[in-house]
Amino acid sequence: MATVMAATAAERVVLEEEFRWLLHDEVHAVLKQLQDILKEASLRFTLPGSGTEGPAKQENFILGSCGTDQVKGVLTLQGDALSQADVNLKMPRNNQLLHFAFREDKQWKLQQIQDARNHVSQAIYLLTSRDQSYQFKTGAEVLKLMDAVMLQLTRARNRLTTPATLTLPEIAASGLTRMFAPALPSDLLVNVYINLNKLCLTVYQLHALQPNSTKNFRPAGGAVLHSLGAMLDPLTAHSEWGSQRLEVSHVHKVECVIPWLNDALVYFTVSLQLCQQLKDKISVFSSYWSYRPF
């Protein structure tokens, strides 16, 4: 029995030494690695006027779709804003070609990119708040920090991977439709959003239902992409339609890949894995003693 107790005591000493090394050395090594990765991610979200490198460069992206040639165009992205948009739309009914572009004095902020960048900045702030000289005293302290960092990274990733759902009236009221010159016809709605590593443009073509229409009117709910037949109340969209009910008759979606968004998503995934691995190492020690010194 004495031998067993001695072995147990010896093992405990070794484990405590390993745990102290983990807190004092490996934790800081992981924090430094996370800082380096996330600083690379933050560079992908450079905004105009930030830092000493001047305004973010303008990038032109050609819109395309393998399923339709009804919509073609080029979007110009500068940081978190669309600075230019040049779109051609072939109307399905009569093949009339419409061309519309952003007014020269207009830009459209992509809130998803701005929010993702802010979450990355917050994660970096949390990591740098513990410099190399800081001594972590307990595992719980490390777990709390990792949870806070992972929360910010998850929110950053979700802002890119989960676009906000909007009702058709919300799209109409967003102001994007009124940014073009010449003005869009009143039967068109436009939405732009990020989905994963893609910049997406959706054009909805509406038509008025006849007063004697037998269709049941059910207002369209929130969605990322609305389908044919979705209906909306004109009072919350385009007043030019009077009191007529509207229905989506055509949906045109085109998109383009933004390579640096793909890089950012990879950085988020790698960083979350590093955080989880460190949490797992801390948690392993809880199985070796009941008084849980961490």
How many individual helices? Answer: 5
Number of strands: 10
What does the overall shape look like?
Answer: elongated
Query: In percent, how helical is the residue content?
Result: 25-40%
Structural class: alpha+beta
Describe the main β-sheet briefly.
Answer: 6 strands, antiparallel
Beta-strand proportion: 15-25%
Average predicted confidence as pLDDT: 81
What string, H for helix and E for strand, traces the elements in order? Answer: HEEEEEHHHEEEEEH
Q: For this entry, what is the oligomeric state of its chains?
A: single chain
* Radius of gyration, CA atoms, in whole angstroms: 27 Å
Detail the poorly predicted runs.
1-7, 48-52, 235-241, 289-294
Q: How many domain modules?
A: 2
Family: Belongs to the rogdi family.
Protein name: Protein rogdi homolog
Organism: Nomascus leucogenys (Northern white-cheeked gibbon)
Main location: cytoplasm
Task: Walk me through the structure.
It is found in: Cytoplasmic vesicle, Secretory vesicle, Synaptic vesicle. Belongs to the rogdi family. One of its GO terms (cellular component) is nuclear envelope. Its main location: cytoplasm. With 294 residues, this protein is α+β, with helices and mostly antiparallel strands. The chain has two domains: 2-43 and 112-161 and 261-287, no CATH class; 58-109 and 163-257, no CATH class. Helices cover 39% and strands 23% of the residues. It contains five helices and ten strands. It has helices at 2-43, 111-128, 139-161, 168-173, 259-284; strands at 58-63, 71-78, 81-90, 97-102, 108-109, 180-181, 188-195, 198-208, 231-232, 246-257. Strands 1, 2, 3, 4, 5 and 6 form a six-stranded antiparallel beta sheet that branches. It has a four-stranded antiparallel beta sheet with strand order 7-8-10-9. The protein is elongated, with a radius of gyration of 27 Å. The model is unreliable at 1-7, 48-52, 235-241 and 289-294 (pLDDT under 50).
